[in-house]
Each structure stands twice: as structure tokens, then as C-alpha cells.
Amino acid sequence: MAGKPGRPKQKPDAIVADKAFDDKYLRGLLRWLGIEPLIPYRGDDEAGLGKTRWFIERTISWFHQFRRLRTRWERKTQLHQAFLSLAATIVCYRTWINAT
After folding, report:
1. Beta strands in 21-90 (DSSP E)
2. In degrees rounded to 5, what are phi and psi of residue 16?
3. pLDDT in tens, 22-48
4. Burial label, 66 (beta-carbon count in 10 A; 0-12, 13-18, 19+)
5. Are 17 and 38 in contact (CB under 8 A)?
6. Cα-only R_g, the chain
7. pLDDT per residue over 9-21, tens digit each?
């Protein structure tokens, strides 16, 4: 008997979250699924996740500099994906220019 058509689902190796998701049941569920939870404890002041979160939030803020991405006007996903790809290209180009 064949399975469902298409690409098989893949689980992530780890999940990064903030202190709001600190719950022993959630941690247990993730470990049971074979996913390493990278969630700081609520009382811990030095979690060490700021480096990862800062990188992601900075990139999202760079995308929000483009007005068409700040508010999604396009109904078709292909057109929105094209604008995302164009914005990513411009962001990479600006980063490369500033690095040289």
C-alpha cells in the first residue's frame, strides 16, 4: 500500500522560542517528538537566545521597509512571493555593498 503523494513531512531538529512558552508539558511533548526545545526558563535572566532572535527580527524589519510587504495588497501568492524575493535580493545587495 502506497503512502500519500508528495514530499514526506520533516520535523525540525530544534525549536527556538521565548520565555512565554516555558512549560514543562510543552518541553516534554517536544522531547517526546524528538525535537530539542531551546526555550529559556522564566527566572533565567541570561537566556542566550537574543543573538538568534535579533538576527531574525532585524531581517523582518528590513522587509518591512518595503511598503508592498508591510501591508499585503496582492491576492495571488505568486505575486507576493515575487515581491518577497525582490526585497530579499535588494537587502542582500545593500548588505554586500556596505560590507565592501
Report:
1. 36-38
2. -100, 130
3. 899 999 999 999 999 988 888 776 655
4. middle
5. yes
6. 19
7. 788 899 888 888 8
